[in-house]
Amino acid sequence: MSMWVDKYRPRSLDELDYHKDMAQNLKHLVKSPDFPHLLVYGPSGAGKKTRIAAILRELYGPGADRVRIQRQAFDTPSKKKIEITTYSSNYHIEVNPSEVGFQDRVVVQELIKHVAETHPLDQHPFKVIVLQEVDRLSKDAQDALRRTMEKYISSCRLILCALSTSRVTPAIQSRCLPLRVAAPSKNQIVKVLQIVSKKEGIIMPLELADRISDSADGNLRRAILMLESCRAEKYPFVDKQPIVEPDWEKYLRETAFIIVQEQSPQRLLLVRERLYELLCHCIPADLIFRGLLKELVKNCDNQLKAEVCAEAARCQWRSTRGSKTIIHIEEFVAKFMAIYKRFIEQAMMADDFDD
Amino acid sequence: MDAFLKTGKLGKSAGRSSESAVSGVAGSQKESKKKSWPVPWVEKYRPRNIDDVVQQEEVVAVLGKILTGADLPNLLFYGPPGTGKTSTILAAARQLFGDNYKERILELNASDERGISVIREKVKKFSQQTASATLPDGRPCPPFKLIILDEADAMTVAAQSALRRTMEKETKSTRFCLLCNYLSRIIPPITSRCSKFRFKPLKDDLILQRLEKICSEEGVRFESGVLKSLIKACEGDLRRAITSLQSCHRLKGKDHVLTIVDVEELSGLVPLERIEELFTACQTGNYDKVDEVVEKMSRNGLPAAKVLDQFFHFVLESGELTDAQKAKIFQKISECNFRLMDGGSEYLQLMDLGTTIMLSVA
């Protein structure tokens, strides 16, 4: 039994539930003889991969769904072997080059050359290479991609997938057709949730769908997962049915609360433990920063909010440069404590003065 | 019997001829298919000879002299993307060496392995070969080969150093042409061995001319003002303008009349309303409002780098802000942009900028 997210994933461009204009345009594109390189970007859970899969299916028919997982090995110039997981059908190959860290350039170069050398089966004029997380590619790899994209255009096309185009070099952007996949609106999520529950044969009150889509943050995958876990928790649904939120979010909120409660070195130690706990469960640092910031600023005035915000932005940036993220998160927490404590003390002094 | 044999023969020969006819047809079909195979417009409208190159008069003048017999120095072209660096040198090579110019040039770019070992082996070997002073068809041509190092600023310093001596030693048989975006990333010993040419960003009216020509040849229909907004979006990068134009055309189908909205969407431009929305949210001095707008932006998948970029122009042209305020905001924009490129989170950087503006305007 598969998860609902996978079970009810639209398979073709016609089945897509929202961004129908784009689906129409994509159909034009697939039919036209010259298919360009694509750069698909948008927040997570907006349906980038679903759209890519639908495009592939539209191009190649159901054969594109038969995917096998392989480990491919590449040699670096210094004769070191690196391995990467690829997902491929007869027509396309999907890979996430950032898996191999700074060696991603080799993967990009070798893989594309390798794929472009062999001609595709049947009458299809080209194969497709899907690269995930292009915004995490190193500068070298992106440079390597530039010319390769032009050189092998006769036998392969690239579909690049990224969260945002900010870190994709302009040179690559100018060689691709950009497709922005915006997150679905609240109503769209509600609609999809209704469709899913109808297909699943469960009765869902509108109020619950509303609340789920509110807390899903425009992430459709998350919304459907929440629906499924609600169903698992209690069915038939009752009034005020609690929505199951990811544990770590609750945990993070509590952590923020602890920080606001008291500012002292002992508290910092306690917080450190909790931060380690979060990091151990593979919660990415930028989500932690974001979550903490959102909670922490609730108790500040404007001036303070700006200060905290600036600190968060600085520490998060530095955390991507260093190798140990915990140090930077802790720095942020300590900074916040200092700022907040000063603010409270000033307020108290002002109070004393008034008295 | 005779008749049968004859008919048999006839049938056979007829069959054969029809077969050959079929294969002939198939062959020609294949050929025509190959011929009609669509080329990206960027390649299709690449200048064929150097006089087609727009705007870069100095380079064209120098290359023109070389075509009439003057000596070719080692060249270093630098300038922003899409200004015609690769096109210029390829067009010049075509004119110098005729249609078989590919045999006379070695084109290496960042996608090829270009470490120090390749410079030592491949480049050295190629540069040591001598070239004859006549082409296969008997025409005279300069007795050297051309090594084009595209995207030279992506080469390592070690590889660049390895190039130094090779460049000097093999001047008899080889000329180098380095193309790069940033001159500062080329080591000085290399720059001093080349004559440098700066490629300027293309002027708007020149891009307009080109785009109009392409549109009329490809039968693209568009609303008035579309080309203008396209040019604005591409910031002097002709390649980007042409690609965007073609993307729009492909995505919307042949009969669609292009509108400004299409162009904005496909050139990755953030709509002006969004920028204004962010600014007014900052003006209210309400943190939650700013948070809401930034959240909305990231949900819509608007790339933060583009937002920063356009916000910069917006602030620059804004009449409400004093110079001091602008300076403060610009400083923050540059800081945020740097951090963003360096791996910072989009949401946090935009929030940082937003709150800074909030404080400085309120």
**End-to-end Cα distance of chain A:** 69 Å
Radius of gyration based on Cα positions of chain B? 28 Å
Would you identify the CATH H-level superfamily of the largest domain in chain A? Answer: P-loop containing nucleotide triphosphate hydrolases
What fraction strand of chain A? 5-15%
CATH architecture of the largest domain in chain A: 3-Layer(aba) Sandwich
CATH topology of the largest domain in chain A: Rossmann fold
Average pLDDT taken over every residue of chain B: 80
Please count the beta strands of chain B (DSSP E, at least 2 residues each).
Answer: 5
Main sheet makeup of chain B: 5 strands, parallel
Spatial order of the strands in the main sheet of chain B? 2-3-4-1-5
Q: Multimeric state of these chains?
A: heterodimer
Our count of helices of chain A gives 14
Biased composition (Low complexity) (chain B): 13-28
Family (chain B): Belongs to the activator 1 small subunits family.
Keywords (chain B): ATP-binding, DNA replication, Nucleotide-binding
InterPro entries (chain B): AAA+_ATPase, ATPase_AAA_core, DNA_pol3_clamp-load_cplx_C, DNA_Rep/Repair_Clamp_Loader, P-loop_NTPase, Rep_factorC_C, RFC_lid
